[in-house]
Amino acid sequence: MSPPELSRAEARGVRHARELEGHLSWLETFSGTALGVLAVASGIYTYLGVSSLLDENGAMSVFAAIAYSVAVSVGIFVFWSYLMRLFPAVRTTRARAGLMAAMGLGSLAIVAMSSWLNAAALAGSAAVEQHLAETVQDYQGALERAHEIALSAQALERDVARVRQSFEDLSEQEAQGTLSGLAGRGAVFRVLRQKSAELAALETQIAAQTPLVDTAFTEGNTILSRMRALTVEPGAVEARSVEFSEAAVRLQGIITRLRQLSVAPLVERAARDLSASVVLPELDGRTAETRADQSATITSVLEVLGARADTLEKAAQAVVALQAPTDVTYTPLSAADAVILYAGNFVPSWAGAIAIDLLPAVLVFILAITQSAIRQGREGAGVEDTLTLAELRAAVTALRDVEGVMAPPATRQEAKAKTDPEAEREPGHAEDESHRVAELKDKRA
User: Per the record, which residues fall in region Disordered (predicted)?
Assistant: First the structure.
């Protein structure tokens, strides 16, 4: 019974499957080489990333970096070679799901052991410079905040001067007899002058801090300018990081000095002591009525003194309550750590580092889709319908060899004689040769 003939659609599917197989055969000639190039490229960038993590530059460190990068290259090549062969070949959903899970787990392992180091090699220096720039901004904010608080404290000098001037004016009025009704420099006058002198000393102390604040702020800006220059200067970023670290230490000292130069706590304490530490003089009125007037005036002065002291204390407390500058500490980072910390700023570099490792996954899916199309094109066709001419010739030759081995000796000789006409002449030819040898022997005898 002859096999059923293929329908037109089935024949077209077989031709399509053969065409795809031809393409795959051509692609397989260089797929392994391409995969090897990708693995080697990833290993090179991995070596650069590992080198940036090692503290020493000796032969052992170089050997360790080379060993790690070679292991990464071999691992990537073997992993994707397995999947490119096995994933397209499996047919069941369970098997494909298992290989997909293995692919996902392996991809995570590749990213963990290689991709982040590739990103460090691609954008490590830029990431470290980004870290330096971010640190400069933090230090600038802290310096400006400390200077702002110091200036706010220096502004209390005007409040102190206003209170001092008010006491001086009251003392002049007392000297003219306007307050207590007694002209001269009596007990009331001495109380007013006492507080006026205290405030004048405080005002002088505050004024002495102004040039110190200005000098510290100018010096801090100079260091900041140098730190900004270090973030963009050409050359190895490691050497610049060392100088940047030294400048950061000096700048942190200046910020601390500015915080200490704030006179707000001093003014707060002075305002608290202004009304609490009053040395009352002895009343020097000649009559009881005069001394009573002096006592009443001193009481009024103390009330005014307490009110002015409360106002000054509240102004100082407002300055003290200002938010202090943020403590900034520069922490040197390696290229790999900087790439991870500022990953959002280097998305293209991360994408390239991951793509060079995971690009073979696309090839795996392409092969799986193509193999599925080949199997679909061959559905409904028998084996004899899918054989090529070369495969058919090889099959016929193999069949003849098998028949020749399994046939009886006589049959094999006949078949050999049919296939090789020279075989029939071989026995006669042997007899002729033996006769010639015998004749030569007789002649010699």
Answer: 406-445
> How far apart are the C-alpha atoms of 212 and 203, rounded to whole Å?
15
Alpha carbons 270 and 198: distance in angstroms, whole number: 9
Asked if 352 and 122 count as a contact pair (C-beta separation under 8 A), the reply is: yes
Structure tokens at 84: 């490119």
What tens digit of pLDDT does each residue of 334-367 get?
887 888 888 888 888 888 888 889 989 999 999 8
The SS3 assignment for 23 reads helix
Q: Has residue 240 got a pLDDT over 60?
A: yes
The mean pLDDT of 275-279, rounded to a whole number, is 55
- At residue 62, the pLDDT reads 83
Q: How confident is the prediction for the chain on average, in pLDDT?
A: 77
DSSP string spanning 65-94? HHHHHHHHHHHHHHHHHHHHHHTTT--SHH
d(C-alpha 33, C-alpha 360), whole Å? 12
Asked if 274 and 191 touch (Cβ cutoff 8 Å), the reply is no
Per domain, the residue ranges of the chain are 8-124+345-382, 126-334, 387-444
